[in-house]
């Protein structure tokens, strides 16, 4: 068993260079690698390309990296909660590639599975299809999309072991497992880090073969983007 533990987030992200492509796990603000993002914010790296379902909010998540002008390009499916993102986009400071959510998920999954391209009906006849190959199958037009891979991926799991095996919880499972598989170097932060043999094998969502570094995170805020409660009558 290879022990993949590192001391903390700062050590885990130490060699991420400027210009790197980062795959960020999470859905909304759920399951985002809070510690990794905070550590990257403190470094001097810039010109990052970030692949993520969303761009966080102004003062949390990837929004922190946008505030520090560390992001050159965002590849996302939803960015509606981030005013700084909107400002940088409209001013031309930030390159943006908006992708249908299902297509984004499949492009990353394909990257992890070693599948260079696939065909999907999503985006046919829209701006998404500009410059891309289309092909008809059984009388329906499909759009060819290419895989997405990263130099590094940063994911957050509920529980993991020293070998990098990961278990995600609830909504955090949406994008984290595929991001983990599609990065050349996967950095995993976990709420609980346990010795080998303590995780039930049938419950593991991401095998340790995909993970190169793992550490136990701390001080998780777990913010809610839009908190909605039922008012009493």
Automatic annotation (TrEMBL):
It holds the Pfam family CoA_trans. Keywords: Transferase. The keyword Transferase applies. InterPro entries: 3-oxoacid_CoA-transf_A (IPR012792), CoA_trans_fam_I (IPR004165), NagB/RpiA_transferase-like (IPR037171). The keyword Transmembrane does not apply. It comes from the Bacteria. Gene3D superfamilies: Glutaconate Coenzyme A-transferase (3.40.1080.10). GO terms for molecular function: transferase activity. This is CoA transferase subunit A.
